[in-house]
Amino acid sequence: MSNAQRTPVVPLEAGAGPENPPCPACGEPLFGWLSARPGLRGPVSRCESCGLGVVGAPGEPEEVLRELSRSEDSAPRIANRASFAASLGSAGWAGLEPGARYLFTVESVRRLVARRDQVVRSRRWAPAAGLAATWQTLLNSVTFGHNVALAALGRGEAARAARPWQRRIDALASIVLAIPALAIAIPVELAGGLTGRGAVISLRLELL
Description:
Blueprint: E1 30-34, E2 44-47, E3 53-55, H1 61-68, E4 77-79, H2 84-89, E5 102-103, H3 106-113, E6 118-125, H4 127-140, H5 148-152, H6 164-176, H7 178-194, E7 200-207
Antiparallel strand pairs: 1-2, 2-3, 3-5, 4-7, 6-7
Helix pairs in contact: 4-7
C-alpha cells in the first residue's frame, strides 16, 4: 500500500475542546461513554489514554486523588474500569455505583499518584470482590434497577427502579437468576484476573 493510500493517524490531542475537556489524570481529552442515567451525577466520559472514567464534569487532579485516598492511602482498592466486567457490562457495570465520581484503572492511578511522588509498587486481584462485582454486572442486564442484589446483601448502594412493580420484578429476577449469573461470572472473572483485567484490584503505593 502506498503512502497516499494509508489512513493518517490522528493524535488524541486533536479531539481536545470544550466538549472534550482534559482528563485530570493524564491531560488527554475525555470522550463521551454513557449518557446520564438515574443514580449518576451526569453523563459518563472516559479517557482513551489512561482509561479513567469521569461522571459529570471533571475536576482537578487533587480532587481525584482525594477520592482515591478515601480508603487507606497506601493500599487503595479500585473497581477496575479496564476489567472484563466493565467491558461486558457497559452501562450495567456494577462499578457505576450511585454517587460515583471517578472510575479508576491501574494506569490512571499510576499517573495520578506520580503527582505526589508515589509509584504503584504492586497490584493484586481481589477475586472474591471481583466475582461479586462481575456477578452483579450480569444481573444488572436483566433488572430495571442497578446493583440491587449487592445492596440486598449489604455490599453497596442500589439505584432502585422507580416503580414498585419494577422493584418486585428486580427482586425476583435477582433470586431466580443468581445461580445462572454466577455460573457465567466465574469464568469471566477468572479470565479477567489471570490477564490483569479483574473487576476489583488492590494497589500498593510507595513514595519514590
